[in-house]
Amino acid sequence: MLRTRILTAAVLAPLAIAAVLLLPPVPFAVLMGLVALAAAWEWSALAGLDSRQGRVGGVALIAASLLLLWMFPGVWGAALLVVVAFWVGVAGMVLTWPRALDRVRSAPLSLAMSVPALAGAWLAMVLLKVQPDGGWIIVWTLALVAIADSGAYFAGRRFGRRRLAPKVSPGKTWEGLAGGALAGMAWALAAALWLPGGAWLWLVAGIVGIIAAVFGDLFESALKRARGVKDSGTLLPGHGGVLDRLDASLAALPVVALVVLGALERPAG
User: Fold this and answer.
1) How many CB atoms lie within 10 A of CB 223?
2) What percent of the chain has pLDDT over 90?
3) In whole angstroms, what separates CA 168 from the centre of its chain?
4) 3-class SS at 1?
5) What b/e string do you get for 228-238 counting C-beta neighbours within 10 Å, with b at 16 or more?
6) φ, ψ for residue 222 (rounded to 5)?
7) Full-prediction pTM beyond 0.90?
8) Do residues 165 and 176 lie in contact, with contact meaning Cβ atoms separated by under 8 Å?
9) What is the rounded distance in angstroms from the CA atom of residue 1 to the CA atom of residue 208?
10) How far is residue 203's CA from residue 245's CA, in Å, rounded to a whole number?
11) What distance in Å separates the CA atoms of residue 92 and residue 97, rounded to the nearest whole number?
């Protein structure tokens, strides 16, 4: 499984980096929109919409959300704040699990949560993409999530003893989180070597990005646990579905975008 996971990542990572760095903003927004729609198909099933018509409706909801955001760029800054507030609320749900179980099992509410989660990540990437060095900031953020996740995986396997959130994701440990945080912090500080803003900006962005990524990961785990499934899909060998690969990034991207755009004084929208 680990070998398959590494091979899949080895294929996808260069393609993702090339798309982020080389595509102009509009084609990039379209491509990321298609990725969001693929994730929406899986999210609809996790929300309890088992019929094809129901899942198509979930995809249509995200498509409409992306279209509305694209048509009204003047609201992008406010929308990003709403998305970050949504993830703060998600953190509260995860911390109080399983009291939040009924909310996650509610198909309408679970489907509604897909809008800030999926459209919010898309918006964060679009906002960053049009900034100077924006493509590299997106790549840095995605790498931050991947490095922290890898650090957590190996540290957890070697040192893991105390469960981080046993009722949501029994495999995660505090030792793994610490290992992932250390790896992520090293990467965060490295950003100061080629990105603007100084070491403190990227250290703060790294900290909040890693924290957000943990809750993004745990939130998808909660959705899957509520539905009694292991993976959100089967599209990516070794990783499961699109959501299984992007869950942490969905939360990290908007939070990092808010911190970086605010610090660099490049207003959104």
Assistant:
1) 25
2) 59
3) 17
4) coil
5) eeeebbebbee
6) -65, -40
7) yes
8) no
9) 30
10) 24
11) 9
